[in-house]
Amino acid sequence: MKIGVTGMIGSGKSFVCRLLQQKGYPVLDADKQVHDLYRSCLPLRERIAEEFGPESLTLDGVNRAFFSNLIFQNNSARIQLENLVYPYLTESVRSFFVKYPNETCFLEAAVLSRSSSIVEMLDAIWVVKTDERCQKQRLLDRGMTENEIANRIQNQQGMLQELQKFGKNLRFIDNSGEKEDVYLQLSELLTFMGA
Q1: Could you give the CA distance from residue 74 to residue 68 in angstroms, rounded to a whole number?
Q2: Does an H or E element contain 22, and which?
Q3: What is the pLDDT of residues 20-61, one digit of tens each?
Q4: Which segments within 27-183 are labelled E, that is strand?
Q5: Quick one: how many helices (H) and strands (E) in the chain?
Q6: Which residues lie below 8 Å from residue 42, measured CB to CB, with a gap of 6+?
Q7: Cα–Cα distance for residue pair 2/10, rounded to 1 Å
Q8: Going by fewer Cβ within 10 Å, which terminus of the chain is more open, N or C?
Q9: Angle 64-73/75-99 helices, nearest 10 degrees?
Q10: Residue 5: φ, ψ to 5°
């Protein structure tokens, strides 16, 4: 079984995925995979340099400051970058799932709904959610500014509605309370899914 784990920034999806890894489940972090591609995939790096200029790249990947300023001011630039990286990410995800043909495995992805080819590979999607107060405090604790938080949240608006269009089995994990509540929800979900 192939399950996507998603949620708004600050919802706690990485926490949920760490728990899954501790239980022995294979988990691919799509965000980390994208950064690996930015660093090591030469065809992708060449395409990014062609589209955005050589200043968009560093030796370790992409110029985060360059793209952070560009993407949050220009939505078409975000879409342009995603269109470049998603074909490579899709192949990485497919290869990951092929390695575990008979196991339940998980894909952690912040904006899962933006890649229909990846969503089509999934049997179910788990959405981690939290209340607005918890979300904002977690992001402030990470050192983000109020403006950065507002930009990130705005960038992910409508995610749930987009996911519902795919007709996948959606399940929710509420991460607004104590960690023990998440442990319990996770155990119940894994039992329900037969994982």
Answers
A1: 10
A2: helix 13-22
A3: 999 999 999 999 999 999 999 999 999 999 999 999 999 999
A4: 27-29, 57-58, 61-62, 105-108, 124-129, 169-174
A5: 10, 7
A6: none
A7: 23
A8: N
A9: 120
A10: -120, 120
